[in-house]
Amino acid sequence: MALTTIDQDNVTYFDLNNELNIPKNNSIQLDKDQEALAAFIRENVDPNTLQFDNLRARFDYLIENDFVDADMVNRYRFEFIERLYDYLKVQDFHFKSFMAAYKFYAQYAIKTNDSQFYIENYIDRVAMNALFYGNGNEKLALQLADEMIHQRYQPATPSFLNAGRSRRGELVSCFVLQATDDMNSIGRTINSALQLSKIGGGVGINLSNLREAGAPIKGIANAASGVVPVMKLLEDSFTYSNQMGQRQGAGVVYLSVFHPDIMGFLSTKKENADEKIRVKTLSLGLTVPDKFYDLIRMNADMFLFSPYDVEQVYGEPFNYIDLTKEYDNMVADHRIKKYKIRARDLENEISKMQQESGYPYIINLDTVNAANPVHGKVVSSNLCSEILQIQRASEIGNMQNYIKMGADISCNLGSTNVVNMMETDDFETSVDAMVRALSFVSDNSKLDIVPSVEQGNREMHAIGLGAMGLAGFFAKNHMHYGDEEALDFTNVYFMMLNYYTLKASNKIAKERKETFYEFEKSAYADGSYFDKYLAQDWGPKTPKVKEIFAKHAVPTVYDWSELMASVRTYGLYNAYRMAIAPTGSISYINDATASLHPIINKIEERQEKKIGKIYYPAPYLSNDTLPYYQSAYDMDMRRVIDVYATAQEHIDQGMALTLFMRSSIPEGLYEWKNGRTDKMTTRDLNILRMYAYHKKIKSVYYVRTYTDDEQEMGVNECESCSI
C-alpha cells in the first residue's frame, strides 16, 4: 500500500480520532485518542515499515541506497552504535497521542524513494540526530540520545529532519539580512534572498536604509521608487525559490516607524490594495524606538526622516542612528528632509493592519539594545521575531563583490520541553549537551553562498535554545496561567536555563581557547551583565515552586559570582544562546503545548491536506487538569505578556509572543471596555502594545483574531523558523 494514497475506507484511526470531538455523557472521549494511536501503529506503521534481519543489515541498506551519511556512521565503532540502539530500546519510548505519531511519520520519518515504505521509526531518527551531533564523541552522542528519547531536547524542524541524512537540506532555521541605500546592495540582497530561501528557512530583511519614494537620485528630483517595489521583487524571489518544491520560500521585511514610506509599507497588506503594491505572502515587521511611544503619549506630531539625508549627515546608515537620542537634533537639522504625520494616526494604522492581517510584527528596538550584552547594534529580526543579534552593514561594489564585509545572521534553534526537562536528574548536563548540539550546527553550516551570513556565523557561533510546553506544565502542576506561582516558576526556569547555557558556552570557550568576536567589548567581559544576578537571589519564592525545584541545583548568588569570574577569565564561545521560537508540528510530536503560550482549545482541530480534520487533546488533559486550561482567546493578554516578560528577563534574544484576540471581547476581560462596545477596536491593541512595551517585551509577533463566525485571522504558521 502506497503511503501517499492511503485508502481511508480501510483504516479506523481517523474515525476514532474524530470521536475526540464528540462528547459522550457530557465528557471528552480521551480514550478514543489512545485507540486511534494504537490503530495507526497497527494499520499504518507496522505493515508499511521495511524490516531488516539486524542493525548491521539496516545500516548497510541505508548507506548503499544513499539514505544515511556514511562519513557520520564511520566516525563511530559499530559496537557503539549497537550499544546506543540497545539503550534507546530499553527506554521503551511510545507516542502519547495519535497526532504525535501521525505528524512524525507524515513529516519526519525517512521513506523509500517510491514512498511505499517507512525506513525509520522514532528511535531511528533520535539515533541519527545523536550520532550526527555527537560528531564521533561517543559520550556526547549517548547523552544527546538520552535527552531526545526522553523528549527533554528537541532540535528545530530542519535540524531534526535532516540530521544524518546523506541527501539533506540545511540544518539552519532562518536568516537575517539588511540592504543599504544603493542599487548594488539591493541587487545583492535579492540574490541573497534567493540563495538562502533555496537552502533553508525564512529570511528577514531590513529595508530601513533605503531612501523613500520620490527622493532625489544624483540631483534628479522624484527619482527614487522607495521600499515597496523592492518588497514586490523580494516576494517574487521567495515564491520562485521554494526549496525544490518541499516548502514555500518565506520572508519578512522590516521597516523603521520613522521611515517616510511607512504608510505605503503598511498599505501593502490591505485587502483592497492595488495589485501593483499588494504583497500577499511576504510578512511585515516594524522596528520601533522609544521615541515613538513618547510621541504617542504626548499626542504629538512625529517627523519621518529621509534615510539618504540622515546617512549624509551622520556618516552611517539610517539603521545605526539612535533615533530616540537624535530625534530633536534631526528635526532641527535643515539638511535632513522630513515629513510630518500624527503619531497616534500611525499607531491606529498599525492596529488596523493587525486587526485585518495580523501584521506587522513589532520590534521594540531600544528595549532590545538596552538589554543586548554584545558589542554592536541590533537593527532587525527574523521571520518569527525572536532572533535579535547585532549586524554590521556591508558595502557592495559594482561587480557585486564585497568592498567592505559586514556581518549578517543565521539562526540555529532548538527547544527544551519544560515538563520533561523538570524530570532530568542533572539540569546542567542536559543543557550542556544541548548547547554542544546547537554549536555543532553553527560550526558545520556551509553558508558561503552569502558571505556576510557566513561571516556573522563564523564570528558569533550564535545559537537559540528555547522552550515549549510551559502551559502544559502549569496545568499538570495545578497552576493557572499567569498567576503568582506560574510567574515564580517561569522566572526560576529561565534563570536556570540562562545560567547553564552560560556555563556550557564558557566551558566550550575554555576547551577550545576561542571566544566569539569582540567578546572583550561585551557586557560579559566587563562583568556588568552579571550585576542583577549578584544583587539579589533569583530562586523560587512560593512554597509550591520551591518544592518543584527542590531536586535541582538552583543557582545562588555565589554560583553567579563564580560563573562571572570564569566567564571574565575564559570567555564565551556563543555570542547569543537563547531565543523562544514558535513551535509548529514538532510540539505535537513532543506532546507539548506550543512555545510559552496558553492553549487555543482543549481539543485542537487541525486541517491536514488530503486527509481532513485531525483532533489533538491538550497535553495532560484530564478531569484533574481541566480547570487549569483556558483558551488564549478567553484570556486577558496582559497575563500572557506577564509570563513572557518574566522569561524575557533571562533571555538574551527575543520571543515570538503572539496576541490572541476575539473580534467580540468577552465581558469583564478588560476594564477599559466597560461601558464601551464589546467589539475589538484599535484602542484595545494600542493599549496592549503599550503594556508590552512597559513590561520590556522586546518583540510582538502575530496578532491572531478569532472572529464571530469562528474563523481565525492573522494565522500564518511559520514552518520555516518554527521549532
Automatic annotation (TrEMBL):
Q: Which of UniProt's keywords are assigned here? A: Allosteric enzyme, ATP-binding, Deoxyribonucleotide synthesis, Disulfide bond, Nucleotide-binding, Oxidoreductase
Query: What Gene Ontology terms for biological process does this UniProt record contain?
Result: deoxyribonucleotide biosynthetic process
Question: Entry's Pfam families?
Answer: Ribonuc_red_lgC (PF02867), Ribonuc_red_lgN (PF00317), RNR_N (PF08343)
Specify whether Nucleotide-binding is a keyword of the entry. yes
An example GO CC term for this entry is: ribonucleoside-diphosphate reductase complex
EC assignment: the record states: 1.17.4.1
Q: Which superkingdom heads the taxonomic lineage of this protein's source?
A: Bacteria
Annotated Gene Ontology MF terms? Answer: ATP binding; ribonucleoside-diphosphate reductase activity, thioredoxin disulfide as acceptor
Top EC category: oxidoreductase
Quickly give the catalysed reaction. a 2'-deoxyribonucleoside 5'-diphosphate + [thioredoxin]-disulfide + H2O = a ribonucleoside 5'-diphosphate + [thioredoxin]-dithiol
InterPro entries (alphabetical): NrdE_NrdA_C, RNR_1b_NrdE, RNR_lg_C, RNR_lsu_N, RNR_N, RNR_R1-su_N, Rrm1
* Protein family membership: Belongs to the ribonucleoside diphosphate reductase large chain family.
Q: What does this protein do?
A: Provides the precursors necessary for DNA synthesis. Catalyzes the biosynthesis of deoxyribonucleotides from the corresponding ribonucleotides.
Identification of the protein by name: Ribonucleoside-diphosphate reductase
Source organism (scientific name): Weissella soli
